[in-house]
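Researcher: I'd like a structural prediction for the single chain below. Treat it as a standalone chain; there are no partners to consider.
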Amino acid sequence: MMKINTIVLFLFVSSLYACFDDKGNYDYQKVTEITIENIPEVIEVLGNSDHIIVKPKVISSLEGEILEDNVNFKFEYKIEIKDGVTKSGQKWINLNPLGTLNLDTLATFAADTYAGWFIVTDKRSGVQASTIFDIKVSSPTYEGWMVLCNEGEQERVRMDMIAVISAERVIPAYDILTPLGLPELKYARGIGFYPNLFSNPADVIYVMSEEGTFKLDKETFKTNVSWNINSVDFIISPVNENVVCYTSVNNETTSRALACICVTNVGNAYAQVFGASGAAFEHAINTSERGSSPKYKVAPYIGVSMARPGNGSSALLYDEDNKRFVGWKYGNDDDITQTLTPVADTENSLFSFKTGMELVYMESTRYSGGLVYSILQDAGGKRYIYGINMSNNGFVQEAKYEDLNAPDFDKATLFAFHSQFPYMFYAVGNKVYLHNLGTNTTYPVNNIALGENETVTMLKFNLYRQCSLKDLNNQSEEFMARQYELMVGSYNAATPDNNGGRLGFYPVDGVNNSVTKRIEYSGFAKIKDVVYRERR
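Model: Treating it as a single chain, here is the predicted structure.
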């Protein structure tokens, strides 16, 4: 018995020593703890304009502050749409493919609230720390100048915007419709805009191109292939034709318009007459009998009185096949509102409405209460300017300008007529000219200085369309004067990317036949059209 106890004691002592020896063979290292500081709970940015910037402070319990160049640590930033206080289940998007500690990336996301996720990983031990923060992306589309462009050699349709966030903050945002569902399109033609005081129909915004015209959501600017105007505003969808010109015939009150009229790229015109619920474009109206097949092609221009509130109930179009003016009038007879009629000559006319010439350009103004200017060219290449007043019942001949003292006027393709002064602006290459119609004198606008690689791509006056914009929103006189500034879009072909477009705003001096630059914005593609997004 004593022998057995001695053996047990020996084994116990041997085991104890073995434990002490084994303990010395382990390397008990402390595990690092990672803390993250300096990330705000909420980051607010303007979509497609502001950058999401995060500069966190990462601290290791063993190594102190972890800097950008520490190769032992991995940094990740992810983003996901946030649904209330929970994550939506949508796949996280990597915000920082380069894996840098600090984040600085353009907020190319639709307006919404997102959950941002910053993750730090110690690559040696696999220890991680993370923090979640909110990213609120606001929309640059609420108010400001919509800038429709053609991008690159392929002429991809792109909309930029000069977003008016406040009177103090006006900033450009670029390519805003790509993340909002606009289909891939080429050859932009213009922006169709009809602001409506009431909600039915709501404000209408269309992006028009040779390959399709799409309505934008009036609040978010979201769109998709199902929002093609042919599907949403026509009773019978046109086949193989796309709307390229769109305008409203304004009412004499501050309510909705009398009608909207459009022209397609194959030369058909359509009228959407309001007054009854469910108003839509019907059959082509370039015919003498409602519902019959079109009899001629019309040019992609629509002349109306731009007086606000409206003082006319007519629209002027041009028959390209028979080289004559044709008219549309509002009335209670549906057959009349769904047809066009040749405008008849009267005694002692300044000119014949059956001109026999090509229509080069047409523009609606407020000059003389609602004058529409038309530029026509005869077979010999000589150009004329006709002024037709659209107030009251419209089609009143008011002015004819011929033998114009205007250098290179026959080469010009871009024009703009002022609504307060008898001025026509035109551009040839990188030169802009001011022609005083009253004195038949032309002034080169030398302070619109463009380089040798630049070309003017647009001239325009953006007349506000909302009937009571000033009264309803208590707008300043300065803001209301913006609509009479000459907008000059230009493009620098030497720009290495597709962003060589500039847009300048020039108040017009009606005494000294001159303009001065107020402000200019850059970074656009080739500017095709600019329309101010008015708010009620």
